[in-house]
């Protein structure tokens, strides 16, 4: 199931590489009305975009955990564990996630076409970056366990799917999800 409102829940793992969007100076993301904070960590060497999690940073930087559901019970604890790292260097923003699944053999990943709405029927992860901090505008990136690309601009709470940018993603399936 698609988890549009954040970093959630099932579907292998991925590493997303975005050219820096000029927001790296504000290193902390805060959800208004909550005490949830994800801190971006500066790295001094580029991260390999390979979905293997063998860079040293994954041993030294603690991932963010404890995500909540959007569907079917909004606000309840997630039924599957997810670990997320938000890292940056002088040129890139890196977002990596391990999305655990207690039944990985039941994951659905069939879509590879860029910006195809079929990705919404796959196990996928979506990231929305609210660069204006107004909960109405930003940039949305979504992928599945096959590494499909789906991106859009969010303008006044409406996805503009015709927008495409340059980014990299690598995904993989593991025994744990």
Which helices and strands occur, and which strands form pairs?
Elements lengths: L11 E8 L8 E3 L6 E3 L1 E2 L14 H4 L21 E7 L3 E8 L24 E6 L8 E7 L5 E6 L2 E3 L7 E5 L5
Parallel strand pairs: 4-5
Antiparallel strand pairs: 1-6, 1-11, 2-3, 5-6, 7-8, 8-9, 9-10
Description:
This protein is mostly beta strands and about 180 residues long. The chain has one domain (about 10-170). The chain is about 0% helix and about 35% strand. The chain contains 1 helix and 11 strands, in the order ββββαβββββββ. It has one helix at about 55-60; strands spanning about 10-20, 30, 35-40, 40, 80-90, 90-100, 125-130, 140-145, 150-155, 160, 170. The strands form 3 sheets. A 5-stranded mixed β-sheet has the order 4-5-6-1-11, with no helix packed on it. A 4-stranded antiparallel β-sheet has the order 7-8-9-10, with no helix packed on it. The chain is globular and about 40 Å long.
């Amino acid at each position: 199931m698609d988890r549009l409102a954040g970093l959630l829940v099932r579907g292998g793992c991925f590493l997303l590489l975005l050219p820096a969007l000029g927001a790296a100076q504000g290193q902390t993301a805060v959800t208004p009305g909550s005490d949830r904070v994800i801190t971006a960590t500066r790295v001094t060497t580029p991260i390999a975009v390979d979905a293997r999690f063998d860079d040293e940073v994954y041993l030294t930087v603690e991932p963010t955990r404890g995500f909540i559901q959007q569907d079917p019970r909004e606000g309840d604890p997630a039924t599957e564990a997810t670990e997320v790292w938000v890292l940056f260097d002088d040129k890139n923003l890196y977002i990596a996630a391990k999305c655990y699944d207690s039944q990985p053999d039941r994951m659905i990943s069939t879509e590879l076409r860029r910006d195809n709405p079929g990705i919404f029927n796959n196990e996928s992860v979506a990231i929305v970056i609210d660069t204006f901090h107004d909960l109405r505008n930003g940039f949305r990136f979504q992928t599945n366990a096959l590494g499909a690309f789906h991106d859009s601009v969010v303008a006044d709470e409406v996805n503009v799917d015709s927008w495409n940018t340059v980014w990299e993603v690598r995904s993989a399936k593991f025994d744990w999800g």
